[in-house]
Write a structure and sequence with these properties.
With 270 residues, the chain is mostly beta strands. It folds into 5 domains: 99 residues, no CATH class; 32 residues, Laminin; 34 residues, Laminin; 30 residues, Laminin; 31 residues, Laminin (Ribbon). It has no helices and 24 strands. The strands form 12 sheets. A two-stranded antiparallel ribbon has the order 1-2. Strands 3-4 form a two-stranded antiparallel sheet. It comes from Oryzias melastigma (Marine medaka). GO terms for molecular function: signaling receptor binding.
């Protein structure tokens, strides 16, 4: 092979003094680089480059910084195979590697990926997989979210935010409840006096009897005919007489020998 394009992954730092692999012809432009199928931003200082193989010139005229497209790479003078998919190359240095213009990838590389060798794709930033078929979100989608495209997660119910990192309870949490994730699901954690999916129901420890409803912590709303903290006391509109007891609305339980709605009638004895 007599020609190779130079791929330089994302890197910010001092790149002075790098040299290419002696067996590779590097092609560079004074104010930019050409990555096949993908444009690179221009460099901010001129670069001197060799047009022939050999250890000679691939020098920066002075130290400078560069920020380009892809990720992790290693010094170009160590191993020209580094930087390929699956490499364990360290981050933070630049690399050139051999590009075969006759390479064929079946199936084809997706999402602007470049076929650099037969059935070997070099993926654009934000994609991964053998054919660059998978989007890669960074940070990764949380709470079961799925990466749809770089930087865009599809979140399951109960979660939101760019990376599904925010817990969202449908309808919100009432009465001081706090929305939080519990076993992968969003739910409201309620204060001690409230309950329900949204903390919408007050709690009455004493209970509300006889059809009463707990309307606030410890407070029952009683139906007609009942009163008391737990709606446990019946009301008789006309009081029971002769020691009788009101046992339900307008119903008296009489003591012998009395009877009648108000225990006002004395039973006759023979």
């Amino acid at each position: 092979m007599t020609r190779a394009d130079v791929f330089i992954p994302t890197f910010t730092g001092d790149v002075s003094g790098l040299h290419p692999d002696e067996s590779v012809v590097f092609q560079m432009h004074l104010l930019g680089m050409t990555a096949r199928g993908r444009g690179m931003p221009p460099l901010n200082r001129p670069v001197a480059a060799s047009s022939r193989p050999g250890p000679a010139p691939f020098q920066l005229l002075s130290a400078w910084k560069v920020s380009l497209l892809q990720e992790s790479v290693i010094p170009a003078d160590q191993n020209r195979d580094h930087g390929l998919p699956g490499s364990d190359a360290p981050r933070g240095v630049a690399v050139g590697f051999v590009f075969d213009p006759k390479a064929r990838c079946e199936p084809a590389c997706k999402h602007a990926g470049v076929c650099i060798r037969n059935n070997t794709c070099f993926c654009a930033k934000g994609y991964e997989g053998e054919t660059c078929q998978y989007a890669n979100c960074f940070p990764k989608c949380k709470n079961g979210g799925v990466c749809l495209r770089p930087g865009k997660c599809r979140c399951p119910a109960g979660f939101g935010g760019r990376y599904c990192h925010k817990v969202t309870c449908d309808g919100g949490c009432w009465n001081g409840g706090e929305c939080t994730a519990v076993n992968g699901a969003a739910r409201c954690i309620c204060p001690s006096s409230w309950t329900g999916s949204k903390c919408q129901h007050a709690m009455c420890p004493q209970g509300c009897r006889n059809g009463g409803v707990c309307v606030a912590p410890g407070i029952c709303s009683c139906p007609d005919g009942w009163v008391g903290g737990a709606c446990h006391t019946a009301v008789c509109s006309r009081s029971c007489m002769n020691g009788g007891k009101c046992i339900s609305p307008d119903t008296c339980r009489c003591r012998p020998p009395f009877s009648g709605p108000r225990c006002s009638d004395r039973k006759k004895t023979h």
